[in-house]
Design a protein that fits this description.
With 386 residues, this protein is of the alpha/beta class. The chain has 15 helices and 14 strands. A seven-stranded mixed beta sheet has the order 3-9-8-7-6-4-5, sandwiched between helices. The protein has a four-stranded antiparallel beta sheet with strand order 10-11-14-13, covered by helices on one side. It is globular and about 60 Å long.
Length: 386
Protein backbone atom coordinates (compact mmCIF):
# COMPACT_ATOMS: atom_id res chain seq x y z
CA UNK A 1 0.00 0.00 0.00
CA UNK A 2 1.46 3.36 -1.05
CA UNK A 3 0.72 7.06 -1.18
CA UNK A 4 -1.51 8.62 1.49
CA UNK A 5 -2.56 5.15 2.72
CA UNK A 6 0.93 3.98 3.72
CA UNK A 7 1.03 6.10 6.87
CA UNK A 8 -2.39 4.83 7.95
CA UNK A 9 -1.31 1.22 7.38
CA UNK A 10 1.86 1.75 9.39
CA UNK A 11 -0.05 3.30 12.29
CA UNK A 12 -2.56 0.44 12.36
CA UNK A 13 0.26 -2.12 12.35
CA UNK A 14 1.94 -0.30 15.24
CA UNK A 15 -1.31 -0.36 17.18
CA UNK A 16 -1.69 -4.08 16.55
CA UNK A 17 1.87 -4.84 17.69
CA UNK A 18 1.25 -2.89 20.92
CA UNK A 19 -2.01 -4.67 21.66
CA UNK A 20 -3.99 -1.49 21.02
CA UNK A 21 -5.85 -2.24 17.79
CA UNK A 22 -9.60 -1.87 18.23
CA UNK A 23 -12.31 -3.74 16.37
CA UNK A 24 -16.09 -3.61 16.60
CA UNK A 25 -18.38 -6.50 17.49
CA UNK A 26 -21.93 -6.69 16.17
CA UNK A 27 -24.83 -7.59 18.43
CA UNK A 28 -27.70 -9.39 16.73
CA UNK A 29 -30.32 -8.52 19.33
CA UNK A 30 -31.20 -5.97 22.00
CA UNK A 31 -28.83 -4.60 24.61
CA UNK A 32 -28.89 -6.31 27.98
CA UNK A 33 -27.02 -8.59 30.35
CA UNK A 34 -27.61 -11.42 27.86
CA UNK A 35 -26.31 -10.58 24.42
CA UNK A 36 -25.77 -12.47 21.20
CA UNK A 37 -22.67 -11.90 19.07
CA UNK A 38 -21.91 -13.94 15.97
CA UNK A 39 -24.54 -16.49 16.92
CA UNK A 40 -23.17 -17.10 20.43
CA UNK A 41 -24.82 -16.07 23.69
CA UNK A 42 -22.90 -14.29 26.45
CA UNK A 43 -23.45 -12.86 29.90
CA UNK A 44 -22.38 -9.26 29.38
CA UNK A 45 -20.62 -7.02 31.89
CA UNK A 46 -19.99 -4.26 29.34
CA UNK A 47 -23.11 -2.14 29.07
CA UNK A 48 -23.76 1.20 30.75
CA UNK A 49 -27.47 0.28 30.84
CA UNK A 50 -27.29 0.30 34.64
CA UNK A 51 -31.03 -0.03 35.33
CA UNK A 52 -31.82 -2.34 32.42
CA UNK A 53 -34.09 0.20 30.73
CA UNK A 54 -32.69 -0.01 27.18
CA UNK A 55 -35.18 -2.74 26.28
CA UNK A 56 -37.95 -1.91 28.75
CA UNK A 57 -41.39 -2.50 27.16
CA UNK A 58 -42.83 0.78 28.49
CA UNK A 59 -40.02 2.78 26.87
CA UNK A 60 -40.36 0.85 23.61
CA UNK A 61 -44.10 1.53 23.59
CA UNK A 62 -43.51 5.23 24.29
CA UNK A 63 -40.97 5.39 21.46
CA UNK A 64 -43.44 3.83 19.05
CA UNK A 65 -46.18 6.22 20.18
CA UNK A 66 -43.84 9.19 19.75
CA UNK A 67 -42.91 8.11 16.23
CA UNK A 68 -46.56 7.77 15.27
CA UNK A 69 -47.27 11.32 16.49
CA UNK A 70 -44.09 13.18 15.49
CA UNK A 71 -42.59 11.05 12.71
CA UNK A 72 -39.12 9.54 12.45
CA UNK A 73 -37.01 12.70 12.46
CA UNK A 74 -37.09 16.33 13.57
CA UNK A 75 -36.04 17.67 10.17
CA UNK A 76 -34.31 20.84 11.38
CA UNK A 77 -32.18 22.42 14.07
CA UNK A 78 -33.86 23.49 17.32
CA UNK A 79 -33.57 27.16 16.40
CA UNK A 80 -35.24 26.66 13.03
CA UNK A 81 -38.31 24.39 13.17
CA UNK A 82 -36.84 21.29 14.83
CA UNK A 83 -37.87 22.06 18.42
CA UNK A 84 -41.04 20.10 19.16
CA UNK A 85 -43.47 20.02 22.04
CA UNK A 86 -41.93 16.70 23.05
CA UNK A 87 -38.48 18.31 23.36
CA UNK A 88 -39.90 21.22 25.32
CA UNK A 89 -41.78 19.02 27.77
CA UNK A 90 -38.77 16.80 28.36
CA UNK A 91 -36.53 19.78 29.10
CA UNK A 92 -38.98 20.96 31.76
CA UNK A 93 -39.19 17.47 33.23
CA UNK A 94 -35.41 17.08 33.33
CA UNK A 95 -34.88 20.43 35.04
CA UNK A 96 -37.45 19.54 37.70
CA UNK A 97 -36.01 16.04 38.10
CA UNK A 98 -32.51 17.27 39.00
CA UNK A 99 -33.69 20.38 40.84
CA UNK A 100 -32.34 23.07 38.52
CA UNK A 101 -34.27 26.05 37.08
CA UNK A 102 -33.83 25.18 33.40
CA UNK A 103 -32.50 22.49 31.06
CA UNK A 104 -31.40 22.10 27.44
CA UNK A 105 -31.28 18.94 25.33
CA UNK A 106 -28.19 18.00 23.33
CA UNK A 107 -27.72 15.16 20.88
CA UNK A 108 -24.86 13.57 22.87
CA UNK A 109 -22.89 14.12 26.05
CA UNK A 110 -19.83 14.84 23.93
CA UNK A 111 -21.66 17.68 22.18
CA UNK A 112 -23.09 18.97 25.46
CA UNK A 113 -19.67 19.28 27.09
CA UNK A 114 -18.15 20.96 24.05
CA UNK A 115 -21.10 23.33 23.81
CA UNK A 116 -21.01 24.41 27.45
CA UNK A 117 -17.29 25.01 27.73
CA UNK A 118 -17.03 26.78 24.37
CA UNK A 119 -19.96 29.04 25.26
CA UNK A 120 -18.81 30.06 28.73
CA UNK A 121 -15.05 30.67 28.42
CA UNK A 122 -12.61 32.05 25.86
CA UNK A 123 -8.95 33.08 25.50
CA UNK A 124 -9.05 35.40 28.50
CA UNK A 125 -10.33 32.70 30.88
CA UNK A 126 -9.01 29.57 32.64
CA UNK A 127 -10.35 26.01 32.74
CA UNK A 128 -9.31 23.66 35.55
CA UNK A 129 -9.72 19.96 34.80
CA UNK A 130 -9.21 16.68 36.63
CA UNK A 131 -6.53 14.64 34.85
CA UNK A 132 -8.85 11.62 34.58
CA UNK A 133 -11.74 13.49 32.96
CA UNK A 134 -13.60 12.01 30.01
CA UNK A 135 -12.26 12.74 26.52
CA UNK A 136 -15.23 14.98 25.75
CA UNK A 137 -14.28 17.35 28.59
CA UNK A 138 -10.66 17.32 27.45
CA UNK A 139 -11.61 18.19 23.88
CA UNK A 140 -14.05 20.83 25.10
CA UNK A 141 -11.41 22.73 27.06
CA UNK A 142 -8.98 22.67 24.14
CA UNK A 143 -11.60 23.92 21.68
CA UNK A 144 -12.52 26.76 24.03
CA UNK A 145 -9.03 28.29 23.57
CA UNK A 146 -8.99 29.16 27.26
CA UNK A 147 -5.89 28.61 29.39
CA UNK A 148 -5.98 24.97 30.54
CA UNK A 149 -4.75 23.79 33.95
CA UNK A 150 -5.06 20.08 34.77
CA UNK A 151 -4.93 19.05 38.41
CA UNK A 152 -3.98 15.65 39.79
CA UNK A 153 -6.94 13.29 40.14
CA UNK A 154 -9.10 14.34 43.10
CA UNK A 155 -6.21 16.39 44.51
CA UNK A 156 -7.94 19.42 46.01
CA UNK A 157 -4.73 21.00 47.27
CA UNK A 158 -3.38 20.96 43.73
CA UNK A 159 -6.60 22.46 42.38
CA UNK A 160 -6.66 25.17 45.04
CA UNK A 161 -3.05 26.14 44.31
CA UNK A 162 -3.82 26.44 40.60
CA UNK A 163 -6.92 28.53 41.23
CA UNK A 164 -5.01 30.84 43.55
CA UNK A 165 -2.35 31.36 40.88
CA UNK A 166 -4.74 31.92 37.96
CA UNK A 167 -4.74 35.25 36.20
CA UNK A 168 -7.79 37.48 35.87
CA UNK A 169 -10.74 36.20 33.88
CA UNK A 170 -13.57 33.74 34.31
CA UNK A 171 -12.71 30.46 36.02
CA UNK A 172 -14.38 27.16 35.14
CA UNK A 173 -13.77 23.83 36.87
CA UNK A 174 -14.79 20.75 34.88
CA UNK A 175 -14.97 17.23 36.26
CA UNK A 176 -16.64 13.89 35.89
CA UNK A 177 -18.88 13.06 38.83
CA UNK A 178 -18.28 9.31 38.49
CA UNK A 179 -15.10 8.58 36.55
CA UNK A 180 -15.95 6.26 33.70
CA UNK A 181 -12.85 4.07 33.77
CA UNK A 182 -12.09 4.14 37.52
CA UNK A 183 -15.60 4.11 38.96
CA UNK A 184 -14.71 6.47 41.81
CA UNK A 185 -16.40 9.78 42.57
CA UNK A 186 -15.18 13.36 42.37
CA UNK A 187 -15.05 15.22 45.68
CA UNK A 188 -17.84 17.48 44.50
CA UNK A 189 -18.78 19.33 47.73
CA UNK A 190 -15.15 20.29 48.34
CA UNK A 191 -14.68 21.33 44.71
CA UNK A 192 -17.81 23.45 44.89
CA UNK A 193 -16.48 25.16 48.01
CA UNK A 194 -13.35 26.15 46.07
CA UNK A 195 -15.51 27.39 43.19
CA UNK A 196 -17.60 29.54 45.51
CA UNK A 197 -14.46 30.99 47.04
CA UNK A 198 -13.05 31.87 43.59
CA UNK A 199 -16.35 32.83 41.92
CA UNK A 200 -15.91 29.99 39.42
CA UNK A 201 -18.37 27.88 37.45
CA UNK A 202 -18.45 24.14 38.18
CA UNK A 203 -19.39 21.90 35.23
CA UNK A 204 -20.26 18.39 36.43
CA UNK A 205 -20.40 15.53 33.91
CA UNK A 206 -22.71 13.01 35.57
CA UNK A 207 -22.96 10.54 32.70
CA UNK A 208 -22.46 7.59 35.07
CA UNK A 209 -24.33 8.97 38.09
CA UNK A 210 -27.64 10.11 36.64
CA UNK A 211 -30.38 7.57 37.25
CA UNK A 212 -28.25 5.57 39.67
CA UNK A 213 -26.96 7.96 42.35
CA UNK A 214 -28.93 10.20 44.68
CA UNK A 215 -32.51 10.11 45.88
CA UNK A 216 -34.76 8.48 43.26
CA UNK A 217 -31.80 8.44 40.84
CA UNK A 218 -31.59 12.21 40.62
CA UNK A 219 -27.83 12.09 40.23
CA UNK A 220 -24.63 13.10 41.95
CA UNK A 221 -25.73 16.56 43.05
CA UNK A 222 -28.56 14.84 44.93
CA UNK A 223 -26.14 12.21 46.24
CA UNK A 224 -24.04 14.95 47.84
CA UNK A 225 -26.94 17.26 48.71
CA UNK A 226 -25.53 20.09 46.57
CA UNK A 227 -27.48 23.21 45.64
CA UNK A 228 -25.62 26.11 44.06
CA UNK A 229 -26.27 28.41 41.09
CA UNK A 230 -22.60 27.94 40.15
CA UNK A 231 -23.22 24.27 39.31
CA UNK A 232 -23.80 23.44 35.65
CA UNK A 233 -25.04 19.87 35.47
CA UNK A 234 -24.64 17.62 32.43
CA UNK A 235 -25.96 14.07 32.18
CA UNK A 236 -26.35 11.60 29.35
CA UNK A 237 -29.58 9.79 28.50
CA UNK A 238 -28.21 6.67 26.84
CA UNK A 239 -26.85 4.96 29.96
CA UNK A 240 -29.07 4.52 33.03
CA UNK A 241 -31.92 6.28 31.18
CA UNK A 242 -31.72 3.62 28.48
CA UNK A 243 -32.37 5.76 25.38
CA UNK A 244 -30.15 8.40 23.75
CA UNK A 245 -29.03 12.01 24.09
CA UNK A 246 -27.91 14.34 26.87
CA UNK A 247 -28.98 17.46 28.70
CA UNK A 248 -27.52 20.39 30.58
CA UNK A 249 -29.35 21.82 33.60
CA UNK A 250 -28.44 25.18 35.13
CA UNK A 251 -29.68 28.68 35.91
CA UNK A 252 -31.93 30.07 33.17
CA UNK A 253 -29.37 32.71 32.20
CA UNK A 254 -26.84 29.95 31.55
CA UNK A 255 -29.29 27.96 29.43
CA UNK A 256 -30.23 31.10 27.47
CA UNK A 257 -26.53 31.67 26.84
CA UNK A 258 -26.12 28.11 25.53
CA UNK A 259 -29.09 28.53 23.18
CA UNK A 260 -27.34 31.55 21.70
CA UNK A 261 -23.67 30.52 21.85
CA UNK A 262 -23.24 26.74 22.07
CA UNK A 263 -22.24 25.80 18.53
CA UNK A 264 -22.83 22.08 19.05
CA UNK A 265 -26.45 22.93 19.91
CA UNK A 266 -27.10 25.62 17.30
CA UNK A 267 -25.58 23.94 14.26
CA UNK A 268 -27.06 20.45 14.38
CA UNK A 269 -30.40 18.83 13.64
CA UNK A 270 -32.54 18.24 16.71
CA UNK A 271 -32.92 14.66 17.90
CA UNK A 272 -36.07 12.83 16.81
CA UNK A 273 -39.00 13.96 19.02
CA UNK A 274 -39.95 10.32 19.55
CA UNK A 275 -36.80 9.92 21.65
CA UNK A 276 -38.03 12.66 23.97
CA UNK A 277 -41.35 10.88 24.37
CA UNK A 278 -39.47 7.71 25.28
CA UNK A 279 -37.25 9.62 27.71
CA UNK A 280 -40.24 11.13 29.49
CA UNK A 281 -41.34 7.57 30.25
CA UNK A 282 -37.77 6.70 31.24
CA UNK A 283 -37.82 9.44 33.90
CA UNK A 284 -40.92 7.87 35.41
CA UNK A 285 -39.22 4.48 35.49
CA UNK A 286 -36.04 5.93 37.04
CA UNK A 287 -38.17 7.51 39.75
CA UNK A 288 -39.74 4.11 40.44
CA UNK A 289 -36.45 2.19 40.41
CA UNK A 290 -35.46 2.20 44.10
CA UNK A 291 -35.55 -1.60 44.19
CA UNK A 292 -33.31 -1.85 41.11
CA UNK A 293 -30.80 0.59 42.62
CA UNK A 294 -30.78 -1.37 45.88
CA UNK A 295 -30.19 -4.59 43.94
CA UNK A 296 -27.31 -2.92 42.10
CA UNK A 297 -25.67 -2.13 45.45
CA UNK A 298 -26.05 -5.76 46.55
CA UNK A 299 -24.43 -6.93 43.31
CA UNK A 300 -21.57 -4.47 43.78
CA UNK A 301 -20.87 -5.67 47.32
CA UNK A 302 -21.05 -9.33 46.22
CA UNK A 303 -18.57 -8.71 43.41
CA UNK A 304 -16.12 -6.82 45.62
CA UNK A 305 -16.25 -9.53 48.27
CA UNK A 306 -15.80 -12.29 45.65
CA UNK A 307 -12.77 -10.69 43.97
CA UNK A 308 -10.90 -9.29 46.98
CA UNK A 309 -8.32 -12.13 47.03
CA UNK A 310 -7.41 -12.05 43.33
CA UNK A 311 -3.83 -11.34 42.28
CA UNK A 312 -5.22 -8.45 40.20
CA UNK A 313 -6.40 -5.41 42.16
CA UNK A 314 -10.04 -4.41 42.12
CA UNK A 315 -9.89 -0.62 42.18
CA UNK A 316 -11.74 1.36 44.84
CA UNK A 317 -15.30 2.08 43.70
CA UNK A 318 -18.78 2.00 45.23
CA UNK A 319 -20.50 2.44 41.87
CA UNK A 320 -21.66 0.07 39.13
CA UNK A 321 -18.27 0.51 37.44
CA UNK A 322 -15.81 -1.99 38.94
CA UNK A 323 -12.38 -1.89 37.25
CA UNK A 324 -10.00 -4.82 37.71
CA UNK A 325 -6.47 -3.50 37.21
CA UNK A 326 -4.36 -5.88 35.08
CA UNK A 327 -1.48 -3.66 33.90
CA UNK A 328 -0.27 -4.92 30.53
CA UNK A 329 -2.28 -4.49 27.35
CA UNK A 330 -1.80 -8.03 26.07
CA UNK A 331 -2.54 -9.64 29.43
CA UNK A 332 -5.77 -7.65 29.74
CA UNK A 333 -6.80 -8.73 26.25
CA UNK A 334 -5.88 -12.36 26.97
CA UNK A 335 -8.03 -12.42 30.10
CA UNK A 336 -10.91 -10.76 28.29
CA UNK A 337 -10.70 -13.35 25.50
CA UNK A 338 -10.45 -16.22 27.99
CA UNK A 339 -13.62 -15.00 29.70
CA UNK A 340 -15.30 -14.76 26.31
CA UNK A 341 -14.47 -18.41 25.67
CA UNK A 342 -16.36 -19.14 28.88
CA UNK A 343 -19.41 -17.20 27.69
CA UNK A 344 -18.68 -14.03 29.66
CA UNK A 345 -18.12 -10.68 27.92
CA UNK A 346 -16.00 -8.12 29.80
CA UNK A 347 -14.27 -5.29 27.98
CA UNK A 348 -10.49 -4.83 28.22
CA UNK A 349 -9.70 -1.12 28.46
CA UNK A 350 -6.29 -0.02 27.21
CA UNK A 351 -4.37 3.21 26.56
CA UNK A 352 -5.03 5.91 25.55
CA UNK A 353 -8.41 5.51 27.27
CA UNK A 354 -6.49 4.81 30.50
CA UNK A 355 -2.87 5.70 31.40
CA UNK A 356 -0.07 3.50 30.11
CA UNK A 357 0.52 0.46 32.30
CA UNK A 358 -2.99 0.48 33.75
CA UNK A 359 -4.92 -1.69 31.27
CA UNK A 360 -7.92 -3.18 33.01
CA UNK A 361 -11.12 -5.13 32.78
CA UNK A 362 -14.00 -2.69 33.15
CA UNK A 363 -16.74 -4.70 34.86
CA UNK A 364 -20.03 -2.84 34.43
CA UNK A 365 -22.94 -4.05 36.54
CA UNK A 366 -26.63 -3.79 35.71
CA UNK A 367 -29.73 -4.26 37.83
CA UNK A 368 -30.60 -7.01 35.33
CA UNK A 369 -27.72 -9.14 36.62
CA UNK A 370 -28.42 -11.63 39.36
CA UNK A 371 -26.14 -13.02 42.05
CA UNK A 372 -25.43 -16.15 40.02
CA UNK A 373 -23.97 -13.96 37.25
CA UNK A 374 -21.58 -12.40 39.76
CA UNK A 375 -20.58 -15.81 41.11
CA UNK A 376 -19.98 -17.14 37.59
CA UNK A 377 -17.70 -14.22 36.74
CA UNK A 378 -15.81 -14.49 40.03
CA UNK A 379 -15.30 -18.23 39.58
CA UNK A 380 -13.94 -17.72 36.06
CA UNK A 381 -11.53 -14.98 37.17
CA UNK A 382 -10.22 -17.07 40.06
CA UNK A 383 -9.69 -19.97 37.68
CA UNK A 384 -7.75 -17.73 35.26
CA UNK A 385 -5.68 -16.30 38.11
CA UNK A 386 -4.53 -19.78 39.05
Amino acid sequence: MSGPFSRLQRELEERASSGLLRRRHTLTGPQGTRIEVDGKRYVSFCSNDYLGLASHPRIIEALQSGAMRYGAGSGAAHLVTGHSLAHDRLECELAAFVGKPSALLFSTGYMANIGVVQALVDRSDTVFADKLNHASLNDAMLLSRATVRRYRHNDLDHLEKMMDEAEAGQRLVITDAVFSMDGDRALLPEILELCERHDAWLLIDDAHGFGVSGAKGRGSISHFGMDSPLVIYMATLGKAAGVFGAFVAAEKIVIDTLVNKARSYIYTTATPPALSVALSESLVLIDEADEARAHLKVLTMRLRQSLKDLKWRLMESDTAIQPLLIGGNEEAMDISMALRERGIWVAAIRPPTVPSGTARLRIALSAQHDLSDIDRLAEALHELAR
